[in-house]
């Protein structure tokens, strides 16, 4: 067998900076004749082409790191060839196949290699940088706590304002914009960049502190791996004294305020989904008939949900609480995931406790658990990470979230499923039908309106039936986020085109 490696330059092929000052002098003793020919050809090229080559060569000279990398790749190839010199062709093939398989294993979902780079390089780097710019030095006095927005089992959520630091011209006061109210009185509002969301981790509830630590960990993890999928996490602080809102020693998590309403808030409105039209598409759908508009709005929301889920799943994270109340709609029509308190990272077993269910029963798949109940507690993190591609292949834990996303699709598309009592009833009926959506359609007496799902030759309905289902054999069958995005429902990207057009018209203003 011929050498598996390309012909390698010799050790004398090191490029000297002085030789590279001009693109014509990019030469080495060994391949001088080739480059001389190239010189002649280059000289006969147009002046424009010459200039481009000159710029590239100058870039190479100036970027000595690039050259170093080039040289180290060269010497790596030389060394690899030396190592395999004494091997037979068969053995060389063996090395190649082993290397290939190792690469496939390390890069297969949930990505052992990327995870290791994140844990041992990016996370410490983020910590160092955050400390440098003061991001991890938040304190109680940096915030004014506003109205309560919600309360979960482990935390209470408030709106709030970040008080700008002294020294930037604000004298520690809240940066405000003035607004004319209806009665012509002047309302004072914080500038949107200063608005924050604060979550107070309950101190008196057992397990709440652990939950807060997990939520913080997941937010930092996603801020490195997939920041566009979730709310911008600003950090945490521990209250240093007790007063009206604060309890000394209590932990607070802080996010940038991403938007006034969640998808749930929009869905409670009778005008849904047209109440989201201007946020998602501006005015580009004017002239399109209303049922088509509604279908496009819902498709765009689902596309964003699946895109975010695909990204977090690629990183080994399963959210486990996907529902409209945990999807914030931003001013620019982005749908962002919030509330990672129930999330689990199945690359390293973070927040995975066998047999623990944490989620909303209305959106939870029939299997109830993200992994089979008999799955043991995770081993130490490096071992768990090494085994994670096998665990993922055997159990497809991401299908937990895609079931919930399927319920969100049904709720958005079928108006009679939007109230929580109707959803509860739907879940009971679906259970009676063995989680077979087609059977449920024949069985239910509630006369749902399937117009949106049945449009476009029933593609939406087909997608829903492939999401809201029992898992098939080998715990598969239900669509993953990546395969859902390849479903014919998303192929005709009218929603994408409208979203792009709307962004373009916004940027022109
Ligand atoms: N970054 C954000 N931007 C805007 N609003 C937010 C943000 N984060 C949270 N909210 C608002 O706060 C509410 C509660 O947040 P979250 O779901 O994280 O809290 P929770 O107490 O864990 O609630 P639950 O467990 O009941 O879902 C959300 O429904 C949303 O209205």
Automatic annotation (TrEMBL):
<dbReference type="InterPro" id="IPR008271">
    <property type="entry name" value="Ser/Thr_kinase_AS"/>
</dbReference>
<dbReference type="InterPro" id="IPR011009">
    <property type="entry name" value="Kinase-like_dom_sf"/>
</dbReference>
<feature type="region of interest" description="Disordered">
    <location>
        <begin position="1"/>
        <end position="22"/>
    </location>
</feature>
<dbReference type="GO" id="GO:0004672">
    <property type="term" value="F:protein kinase activity"/>
</dbReference>
<protein>
    <recommendedName>
        <fullName>Protein kinase domain-containing protein</fullName>
    </recommendedName>
</protein>
<dbReference type="GO" id="GO:0005524">
    <property type="term" value="F:ATP binding"/>
</dbReference>
<feature type="domain" description="Protein kinase">
    <location>
        <begin position="143"/>
        <end position="490"/>
    </location>
</feature>
<dbReference type="InterPro" id="IPR000719">
    <property type="entry name" value="Prot_kinase_dom"/>
</dbReference>
<feature type="compositionally biased region" description="Low complexity">
    <location>
        <begin position="1"/>
        <end position="15"/>
    </location>
</feature>
<dbReference type="Pfam" id="PF00069">
    <property type="entry name" value="Pkinase"/>
</dbReference>
């Amino acid at each position: 067998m011929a050498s598996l490696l390309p012909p390698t330059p010799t050790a004398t092929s090191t490029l000297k900076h002085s030789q590279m000052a001009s693109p014509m002098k990019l030469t080495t003793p060994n391949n001088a004749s080739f480059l001389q020919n190239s010189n002649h050809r280059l000289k006969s090229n147009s002046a424009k082409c010459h200039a481009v080559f000159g710029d590239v060569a100058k870039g190479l000279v100036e970027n000595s790191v690039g050259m170093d990398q080039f040289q180290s790749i060269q010497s790596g190839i030389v060394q690899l060839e030396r190592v395999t010199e004494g091997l037979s062709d068969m053995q060389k093939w063996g090395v190649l196949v082993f290397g290939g398989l190792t690469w496939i294993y390390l890069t297969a979902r949930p990505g052992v290699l990327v995870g290791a780079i994140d844990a041992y390089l990016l996370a410490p780097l983020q910590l160092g940088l955050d400390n440098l710019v003061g991001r991890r030095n938040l304190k109680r006095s940096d915030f004014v706590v506003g109205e309560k927005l919600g309360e979960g089992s482990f935390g209470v959520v408030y709106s709030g304002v970040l008080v700008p630091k002294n020294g930037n011209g604000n004298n520690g006061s809240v940066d405000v914009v003035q607004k004319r109210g209806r009665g012509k009185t002047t309302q004072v509002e914080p500038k949107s960049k200063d608005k924050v969301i604060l979550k107070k981790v309950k101190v008196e509830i057992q397990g709440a502190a652990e939950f807060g630590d997990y939520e913080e960990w997941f937010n930092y993890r996603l801020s490195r791996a997939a920041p566009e999928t979730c709310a911008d996490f600003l950090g945490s602080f521990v209250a240093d004294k007790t007063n009206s809102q604060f309890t000394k020693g209590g932990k607070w998590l802080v996010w940038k305020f991403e938007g006034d309403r969640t998808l749930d808030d929009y869905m409670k409105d009778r005008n849904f989904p047209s109440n989201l039209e201007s946020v998602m598409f501006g005015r580009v759908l004017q002239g399109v008939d209303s049922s088509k508009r509604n279908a496009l709005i819902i498709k765009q929301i689902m596309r964003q949900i699946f895109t975010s889920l695909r990204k977090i799943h690629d990183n080994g994270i399963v959210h486990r609480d996907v529902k409209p109340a945990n999807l914030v709609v931003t001013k620019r029509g982005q749908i962002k995931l919030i509330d990672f308190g129930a999330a689990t990272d199945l690359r390293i077993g973070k927040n995975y406790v066998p047999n623990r269910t944490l989620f909303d029963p209305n959106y939870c798949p029939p299997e109830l658990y993200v992994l089979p109940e008999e799955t043991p507690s995770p081993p130490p993190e490096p071992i768990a990470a090494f085994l994670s591609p096998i665990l993922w292949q055997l159990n497809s834990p991401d299908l937990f979230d895609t079931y919930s996303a399927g319920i969100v699709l049904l709720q958005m598309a079928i108006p009679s499923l939007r109230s929580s009592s109707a959803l509860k009833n739907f879940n009971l009926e679906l259970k009676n039908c063995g989680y077979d959506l087609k059977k449920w359609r024949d069985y239910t007496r509630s006369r749902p309106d399937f117009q949106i799902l049945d449009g476009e030759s029933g593609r939406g309905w087909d997608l829903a039936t492939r999401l809201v289902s029992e898992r098939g054999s080998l715990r598969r069958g239900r669509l993953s986020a990546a395969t859902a995005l390849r479903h014919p429902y998303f192929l005709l990207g009218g929603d994408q085109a409208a979203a792009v057009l709307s962004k373009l018209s916004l940027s022109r203003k």
